[in-house]
Amino acid sequence: MSRSERSPLLLAGLLAAAGTAHFAVPRQFDAIVPRSLPGTPRTWTYVSGAAELALAAGIALPRTRKTAALAAAAFFVGVFPANVKMAVDWRDRPAPQKAAAMGRLPLQLPLVLWARSVARSGEGAA
Description:
Elements (H helix, E strand, L loop, with lengths): L2 H22 L1 H5 L10 H20 L4 H14 L1 H10 L5 H27 L5
Helix pairs in contact: 1-3, 1-6, 3-4, 4-6, 5-6
């Protein structure tokens, strides 16, 4: 299997694992939901987890890959405020935890670019 064939499946796997984690250990995700959002943090945790699972399924299927990958890119941009909240909330934690929270911030850009690359490679699959 070539790299271009593996890339969408790896992205789908990442999203599926993250989506599953939202249901398996929701408390850690509840804590990073920005307070400005309406409703309860748990609702947002479950909605974002379900979105990640749906995106994973869409990317895994060649027929829906392009649309789902573009939606994933938008999703990665949309969850950035949660990563900012985590970095702010964790600024007084021990160095390894603070580094992990800060490390999530620049990670969003490669995720967006990866999803866009998958979308481009999926253009002929529709």
